[in-house]
Amino acid sequence: DLTEYLKNILTERGYYFGSRNFELIRDIKETLGYIAIDYKQELRLASENASYDKTFKLPDGHIMTLSSEAFRCAEPLFDPTMLGFENGFGLHQLVQKSLNNIPIDLRRNLCENIILSGGNSMFPGYGKRIKKEINQLLCCDVKIVEQRERMYSVWIG
After folding, report:
1. Sorting pLDDT into bands at 50, 70 and 90, what band is 112?
2. 67 and 54 Cβ atoms separated by less than 8 Å
3. Other beta carbons within 10 Å of 133
4. Structure confidence at residue 152 (pLDDT)
């Protein structure tokens, strides 16, 4: 779970949260979290540049500062080994595997209609990153659809 992962990486910065603070950590993730288009480059830039620092006001009035944690918390979507899954596939790899299991004459149409949905698709940068990763794996140009109501589209239909 990305919220639990964020809780763990916040300890590296000296922030400790008990088990009762799950909603607070989720709020931090949803407020400050984003997807890095190029993860390694973003890590390097965040370590060199204080402009990557983001602040969050805690309920007790204290201000906490995040830097790389803001994008590191979502990276396991593309690299599940960060969560300890040795043989896990990132979302882009799962899309590739799915497309490779359907008849080739249908693939192009599906590549032109990849619809994002669910809470994790709300991370800023998600659509651009998944498009980049899928394009690299499939060597084709995919079309990503990001509807405004995608957080609830699974329930809406």
Report:
1. confident
2. yes
3. 19
4. 67
Q: Rounded to 5 degrees, what angle do the CA atoms 55, 23, 38 make?
A: 50
User: 14 in the Ramachandran plot: left (φ > 0), alpha (ψ -120 to 50) or beta?
Assistant: left
pLDDT digits (tens, 9 = 90+) for 62-108: 999 999 999 999 999 999 999 988 888 999 999 999 988 999 888 88
Cα→Cα distances 2→18, 36, 72, 101, 116, Å: 16, 15, 10, 28, 18
Cα four-point dihedral sign 11, 17, 22, 26: negative
pTM of the complete model beyond 0.70: yes
Confidence (pLDDT) at 119: 84
Distance CA 64, CA 90 (A): 30
For residue 148, pLDDT beyond 80: no
Residue type, 138: L
Q: Reduced to 3 states, what is the DSSP secondary structure of residue 15?
A: coil
d(CA 69, CA 75): 10
* Angstrom distance (rounded) from CA 78 to CA 70: 15
What kind and span of H or E run contains 63?
strand 63-66
Exposed, middle or buried by CB within 10 Å (0-12, 13-18, 19+), for 121? buried
CA dist., res. 40 & res. 84, Å (int): 19
